[in-house]
Amino acid sequence: MAHCERASKPLLQCLQKTYTKGLPGLQLQSTRAFQSTALAREEAQTEAKSTPFHKSPDPALVTSPRLERRLLRQGIAPVGSRRRRAALQGSSNIPFEQLPFQCFQEARKVLIADREEKVRDIQSTSEKIARLQALSNEEAGGLQVKKSKLRAMELHLEHLKILADVNDPLVKKKFEDGQGDLSKPIYRYLADRKWREYRRKILVQRITQMKVIPDVLPHCDPIVDTKLYFNRSQVQPGEYVNAKVSTTAPKLDVQLFEGGEKLVTIAVVDSDVPNVEKDGFDFKMHYLAVNVPISATNTKVDLAQLSGESQVVLPWEPPVAQKGSPYHRLSLFILEQKDSEPLDFAAVKAKETERENMLPRTLQARYHLKPIGAHLFRTQWDETTFEVMKQIGFPEANMELRRKRVEPLPYKRRNPSTFR
Amino acid sequence: MFQPRFLAPLRALERGLTRAPTAAIRNNNNYNNTSSLLRTTSSILSATSNSSILTQSKLTPLASPTLHQFLQVRHASHASQGTANRHSRDPAGKRLGAKRTAGEYVVPGCIIFRQRGTKWFPGENCAMGRDHTIYAAEAGYVRYYLDPERHPDRKYIGVVFEKDGKLPTPKNAPTRRKLNRVAVRFEPEEEVAAAKQGDLVAKIGQDGTQVGSATKVEAAQAAVQLRPGYMYREANWSIGRAAEKAGITAKPYNRKNRWLAWRKRTAKADRLAQMKSLKNKKKKKGGK
């Protein structure tokens, strides 16, 4: 706490001393703001006399790690960086529009002018779209031409909507503070960009390096951010999960970066079930649910809480790895249903009853699904596996897999008589 | 010092003089005579010019002109630069290259290709060793192939399971793998632990009743063997696992536990202080 206060001190002093006179308009609003004494803090302290700060810490101002932790336990994340919160404690919280930096205000004017231009563009494009829609097919030059034109114009309109707000400092601040409203296209765009910068790269690397992609499904281009939680702790893609931890169904956080709602199928597949007779590996479906609605704002999916009558085809089965078997990859796929139309649950339930050897490729072809998100975790034999096996009645719990001896090649004489 | 026209007649004279002694030896004349003759000539020369020292120095090396030509000196610095046709340019072969041809059967660990650098890359069911040696990771048949989808100009060595298998496989096809394991029954650790708890056995001997664990005693006896140094004792590895057997577990170190750290620190400081005081006492005693 002391560090960040020390770091932000020069800035605050500069703010408070240089602009003592300030702008005339500003003085009306906050006459005490530019005095050389730190008043905001005093005010906060006087207020705190009724309810002390440590009793109800403000997430925008809290700097002590202990109070931050307490807030986090309550489920409230502190806003921004600790350094910034420390700086805000002593600042007078002047709104953006009134910050007394001339260059900043000049730059804002440029941005505002640009935004106005973009808004005009948006209006004209939407008018154009309306006009084209009013035309009949013959007038527009055929159905296909009209369709493609409309599609192109709508894409352009979406692009313009993002361009209008992408340079707004307030939008940027709100997004970075995690207060962005994901029902708006600009925040979805920013969130998508942030996801693609790092988390998506990690995910794609894990699913390709661990060969999930050619083994389970031929290809997958993730467009939704998927987070997986077992018992409220997040699992990174490819992490090993203890057998006991994964006895309960995980929770998902599926972040869609497009507008509108989508109906998806969620499947968890184990692609490494050892088969000794075949000397190979089998598949096993650990979970299958259809018609799960997701949207940009409705992201939480609890696999245990989905309805058994209309969604869950195969309920969660805890994954276990036999002793001595290579690690099991449990890949979770979010598959978009065609045109986001609901599947016939009763038919699916009647058809998909066998967990063993249910191939995701078959499912994909049968129900016209398209993978839009993926996640991966692994299991291997650990100290809790045997217990879980007994619990779920695993048939070969006390069978261990040992390496098969490969017969060595026959000895070949290094210098036969022909060499001598 | 000398004008060349003065030097020319002197050289002619020298030539005459050198010839003279050889002729004298051939004629079995007395050597002393010739030497005296030499001396006389030098005296004559000294009389004519003031450079007797010079002529003498010029005369002395002339005694062995042929030896000088063959005695060449090669210093260490010169020799170390190597000879013109040195053998280091043509070292022994390193026996690199293919050890298994395409289609040959290999088992895991079988070396397929030895190379310097990566002329070939490990493909399906193959791996690369420390010195870029390609070896098989599965039993099968060797294939040498190109895989433009993976890399435009890398050459790969792979192993397929079937004799007529093909590589590369399509990019979207699931990988072909083998389990290579057999199922064996095993005793789960909990049951093993339960079985290890031996029954209590009572023995009635001369000095009273003894109660002990039967299996544990046996295990202990089995462990005691004649060890190097003619000692009956436990093996070192079993001594090392004594704590594990006794069920003693050390707490994992937690760097955030500052209270424990503080206690340890103070204990150490106290110990050091005590040691110091003891040392001082000894010194004082010695001084007295």
Blueprint (SSEs and pairs):
The complex is a heterodimer of chains A (420) and B (288).
Chain A: H1 2-18, H2 24-29, H3 39-48, H4 65-74, H5 82-90, H6 102-134, H7 137-140, H8 143-165, H9 169-176, H10 185-197, H11 199-209, H12 212-215, E1 225-230, E2 233-235, E3 239-240, E4 251-255, E5 261-275, E6 280-295, E7 300-302, E8 312-314, E9 328-336, H13 345-351, H14 360-367, E10 370-379, H15 385-392, E11 399-403
Parallel strand pairs in A: 3-10
Antiparallel strand pairs in A: 1-2, 1-4, 4-7, 5-6, 5-9, 6-8, 9-10
Chain B: H1 4-26, H2 31-48, H3 52-59, H4 65-70, H5 76-79, E1 97-98, E2 105-106, E3 111-114, E4 121-122, E5 126-128, E6 134-136, E7 140-146, E8 155-160, E9 181-185, H6 189-196, E10 200-205, E11 208-213, H7 214-223, E12 225-227, E13 231-233, H8 236-240, H9 242-246, H10 258-287
Parallel strand pairs in B: 4-8
Antiparallel strand pairs in B: 1-3, 2-7, 3-6, 5-6, 7-8, 10-11, 12-13
Keywords:
heterodimer, A: 420 residues, alpha+beta, Phosphatidylethanolamine-binding Protein, 6-stranded mixed β-sheet, 4-stranded antiparallel β-sheet, 15 helices, 11 strands, 41% helix, globular, B: 288 residues, OB fold (Dihydrolipoamide Acetyltransferase, E2P), 4-stranded mixed β-sheet
Molecular structure report:
Chain B: One of its GO terms (cellular component) is mitochondrial large ribosomal subunit. Chain B: It is found in: Mitochondrion. Chain B: Keywords: Mitochondrion, Ribonucleoprotein, Ribosomal protein. Chain B: This is Large ribosomal subunit protein bL27m. Chain B: GO terms for molecular function: structural constituent of ribosome. The complex is a heterodimer of chains A (about 425) and B (about 290). By secondary structure, chain A is of the alpha+beta class. Among the domains of chain A are: about 1-100, no CATH class; about 200-390, PEBP-like (Phosphatidylethanolamine-binding Protein, Alpha-Beta Complex). Chain A has 15 helices and 11 strands. Chain A has helices spanning about 1-20, 25-30, 40-50, 65-75, 80-90, 100-135, 135-140, 145-165, 170-175, 185-195, 200-210, 210-215, 345-350, 360-365, 385-390, and strands at about 225-230, 235, 240, 250-255, 260-275, 280-295, 300, 310-315, 330-335, 370-380, 400-405. In chain A, the strands form 2 sheets. In chain A, strands 3-10-9-5-6-8 form a 6-stranded mixed sheet. Chain A has a 4-stranded antiparallel sheet with strand order 2-1-4-7, with no helix packed on it. Chain B has about 290 residues and is α+β, with helices and mostly antiparallel strands. Among the domains of chain B are: about 5-65; about 95-160, OB fold (Dihydrolipoamide Acetyltransferase, E2P); about 200-270, no CATH class. Chain B is about 40% helix and about 20% strand. Chain B is built from 10 helices and 13 strands. Chain B has helices spanning about 5-25, 30-50, 50-60, 65-70, 75-80, 190-195, 215-225, 235-240, 240-245, 260-285, and strands at about 95-100, 105, 110-115, 120, 125-130, 135, 140-145, 155-160, 180-185, 200-205, 210-215, 225, 230-235. Chain B has a 4-stranded antiparallel sheet, with no helix packed on it. In chain B, strands 2-7-8-4 form a 4-stranded mixed sheet, with no helix packed on it. Chain B starts with a helix and ends with a helix. Classes of the chains: A alpha+beta (about 425), B alpha+beta (about 290). Strand 11 of chain A pairs antiparallel with strand 9 (about 180-185) of chain B, so a sheet runs across the interface.
